[in-house]
Amino acid sequence: EFQDTDPVQWQILERAFLGHATMVLVGDPxxxxxxxxxxxxxxxxxxxxxxxxxxxxxxxHRSDAPLVAAVDTVLRGxxxxxxxxLVRPARAALxxxxxxxxxxxxxxxxxxxxxxxAQHESDAPLKIGDVRPRVAADVAGDIAALLRSSATYDHGxxxxxxxxxxxxxxxxxxxxADLLHEALARLGVPAVRSGGPDVLQSDxxxxxxxxxxxxxxxxxxxYVRAAALGPFLGLTAADLATGGADPDGDGLTDRxxxxxxxxxxxxxxxxxxxxxxxxxxxxxxxxxxxxxxxGRRQLTDLEHVGHVLAGASREHGLGLSGLLRWLxxxxxxxxxxxxxxRRLDTDADAVQxxxxxxxxxxxxxxxxxxxxxxxxxxxxxMVRLHDADGRxxxxxxxxxxxxxxxxxxxxxxRAGEALRLxxxxxxxxxxxxxxxxxxxFNGKHAALHRALFRPDPDDPVVPDTQPVPSDHDAVxxxxxxxxxxxxxxxxxxxxxxxxDPAPADGTELxxxxxxxxxxxxxxxxxxxxxxxxxxxxSVASEPETVGPDDEVDVVADVGAAPTLGPSxxxxxxxxxALGTLVHGVLEDVDADVMATSTDAMEREVRLxxxxxxxxxxxxxxxxxxxxxxxxxxxxPLGALADDLTLAEALxxxxxxxxxxxxxxxxxxxxxxxxxxGTLADVADLMEQY
Length: 689
Hints:
Radius of gyration: 33 Å
Shape: globular
Number of strands: 14
CATH superfamily of the largest domain: P-loop containing nucleotide triphosphate hydrolases
Number of helices: 22
Helix content: 40-55%
Structural class: alpha/beta
Number of domains: 4
Distance between the termini: 52 Å
CATH topology of the largest domain: Rossmann fold
CATH architecture of the largest domain: 3-Layer(aba) Sandwich
Strand content: 5-15%
Mean pLDDT: 84
């Protein structure tokens, strides 16, 4: 994925390896779509230009041959934002089609919505706000019809019925994902969203804010009533109005307040994780949420926010008040962390709705790309661009010719990235690609529209903008693509038949019961944890005041650092397993051998490595590990260790870690002589170690 590099990363790699070792850069500039987060395809192109050898992969192992040919018809030879980024012809490793659909044989379908189809009488382009719901409904209807059909797909073990899990929809905006999810739900088609927005920004995050506010102030009836109406307690306004002994329903409010106090006590006793589990694992809460459409999504988000809160509470030691402030602060952030991206609400077979950015590197049997015919280009107040020397620049605005030139250059770069995003979207499908087109006002900027309606289909240059044609001219151009072997053009006639749910098997489910008590007070702990509980903070002296130290010593010119050879550890796969093995070897090596010759040391290390591998086998190259360990043993540890090597330190005074467990509350007497330990026992233990 080197096409997603940046100038700093390439500078590091260039200085470290260029001219010193063979460096192989693997990347596809046609898939450079991460400019918004620092990916710099210009840096990739400059790096690639320095290569002594350039090779191209020409065989497609993802898609069936008919689909490869149809997509290639539209994109072949196109320059995706730079003359060096060309779509070259590819051949498919799979000659046939794994998808068998008797109703639609075309591997690439293009569903078009014309002005006349939308009852639009003028020649003006359509409004995207009117088009999006129609397209979402059309996608849902088409998928429902596909899943109702007798279509099959061969995953490698023979044809099986096509399922919802074989279908993906690629979108660019969360608004589009919401429309599609709702349209699919109306037709009974199961769907999940992946790579969505920050879960703390969702309605579930707001519900947790409401609950935590009430938990912090259970004496304030307004907060209590707001929490009572939320998903955790599930009361209605009518319940609050009529549930008490008096007309204001204060009796019920008092009972809810008592519930909240109990939850606050639970949080203090069992931690935030215990409170979250009590709330989201309550069968009454689960049943109440799943009774409604979208309930699984809501339950998943509530659980996810709860887990994030539990993690924050554990990491920062937060109580209820601190947790509420932390959540409010995180909801005000614009950039969420990875663990806060909304989770899938089910792992069942369902249509996957993902952004094109998330889909990069993935593949799906059937892919729908419904909205790449429209692209809104805002008027920027600042523009990012590359100057004539390829350096990334930020123009913060102002009038004048430089601003206009920079804005035009920035627009061209974004238009090129939009073409690369189109390429990524069109190459995710394994057997079928379905796209949509409509003549919208912003269509002139859209990558799909520009590729389909560029003046010369054989010209590699794709204009940054392309006027939206009339219905007549649009049909003529789209039919021409079909005649060339491109997408089969279809009129967008939305189907509204729902997907029939699979029949239940009639098996009655029986709840499994736990018939034994679990001692939740039993635990395994450490000596450090035990003494920490009674470790009061001692009074410390005030820090010494250090005088000003802002003068810099004269730095001697030490010259260039010597060029070092590659580390012997570089080719070894790291990880905890290798670390445990190395730790065991260094504990077991014979200290006397460490002070002898290198050959003897190598034999000793090899013996201990083989012993460790016999006890805990892992995939490691012994011939690479042994010299790496010997090198580590013979390397000086620096001035702080008087330049001793690890081998010399082991030979002088080897220390060994003691493994022990001490059962408490009588557990240490099981199967042993019932007598107290003596000083002699301790002496024997010390002598042994």
